[in-house]
Specification:
Aminopeptidase; 10 strands; Acyl_CoA_acyltransferase; three-stranded antiparallel sheet; five-stranded antiparallel sheet; alpha+beta; N-acetyltransferase activity; N-acetyltransferase domain-containing protein; 8 helices
């Protein structure tokens, strides 16, 4: 768990964005979506969504075979539950007539890091084969710069997975989830977002949403401690930053 806590005066769950999708090919009216904090009653549904969609399509987890590694899968699920309990994860819901009719179109698993958290993470031990490799990547690419000193912040927002259900891809859910991080950060007093992306589509959306490049690695040459981590992958992963402007005082 992060040492940073969501301010008590920020309502939970809060709505951060509402937008309209595209007109469907068969002429049906476009869907409307609401992006908000993940409410407690959706926690387990979000875990299922991330497992069903994100872990199948995200290149690094998929190529390492996380779904065939039950220890890593359990460790990842436990980490996602911790993140959900931090009350910073967001979900895109399809608007319906009743609350119960809302469907999960996508979600973004978000958490915060302080300098204290980063020091503690150096000693975190994971047992799963896949999670061990992913932790190597995390410590390497996040640890190349002193992010707190570079951006003069005490805390930043980060992420461990953004997922969109296939039937909603055409409505730019991923981009809107990335953009919704800004009002979330403004309300909670966070001035920096740090995220790494591992697919061409996600990288395109990140730059479109205003994220700037910090670190870059090609999969086919990326080594940590002499080990080639993703020998079967092409493409690249990048670490990005986005600074969050403070809300103007009224």
């Amino acid at each position: 768990m992060s040492s940073w806590k969501r301010p008590k005066d920020v309502p939970y769950p809060s709505v951060w964005a509402r937008f309209q999708g595209k007109v469907s090919e068969n002429g049906k009216p476009p869907l409307w979506y609401t992006i908000q904090d993940v409410p407690e009653h959706l926690f387990e549904d979000i875990i299922k969504h991330m497992t069903r969609y994100f872990l199948v399509r995200e290149s690094t987890f998929a190529t390492l075979g996380v779904l065939e590694d039950p220890v890593s899968l359990a460790e990842l699920h436990a980490r996602w539950r911790e993140m959900l309990n931090e009350r910073m994860c967001i979900v895109a819901l399809v608007d319906g007539d009743e609350e119960e009719s809302k469907r999960i179109a996508g979600c973004n698993m978000l958490n915060t890091f302080t300098r204290e958290d980063m020091e503690k993470n150096k000693n975190v031990q994971v047992k799963g084969r896949v999670m061990q490799k992913q932790m190597l990547v995390f410590h390497d690419i996040y640890g190349r710069d002193d992010i707190f000193e570079k951006f003069n912040v005490d805390v930043y927002l980060s992420a461990l997975g953004l997922s969109v259900a296939p039937q909603y891809h055409r409505d730019n859910i991923g981009y809107h989830l990335l953009m919704a991080r800004t009002p979330l950060c403004q309300a909670t007093g966070i001035q920096l977002i740090i995220t790494y992306f591992s697919s061409a589509a996600a990288i395109h959306e990140a730059f479109k949403a205003g994220y700037k490049l910090l670190q870059y690695e090609s999969f086919n040459t990326y080594r940590v401690n002499g080990e080639l981590l993703y020998p079967r992958l092409s493409g690249q992963l990048i670490l990005t930053a986005k600074t969050v402007p403070k809300l103007a005082l009224e």
